[in-house]
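From the shared-data thread, chain only:
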Amino acid sequence: MFAIPGQSPVTVTPAAAKQIARLMAKQDAAGLRIGVKKGGCAGMEYTMDYVAEVDTHDEVVEVDGGARVMIAPMAQMFLFGTEIDYETSLLEAGFKFRNPNVVDACGCGESIKFDETLGTPT
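Structure, as tokens:
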């Protein structure tokens, strides 16, 4: 919906692609659907769900190695330009979103605030 022809709406690092593909196989999923919802102390939260099928309105990003990311329709404008990474440290491991549309985040790192010119998802 909000794509620029010839440009992927999100990029996925090799580490994230490997983890997505591994979890897709483990859960027999068609891909990872990402979105946003209202919540958290900063106002918005990312959502991530492994799903069995692609919704006709999802923006689908195919990644090398068999990983597939679907962007929920209401999240597309908020996620455009985002890099999805997977990081592992001594204390935690998880997906990290580097999103140029985020203007603020809460102290715990669980919620974000988007540039108000993007609108608010319903």
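The chain has a mean pLDDT of 85.
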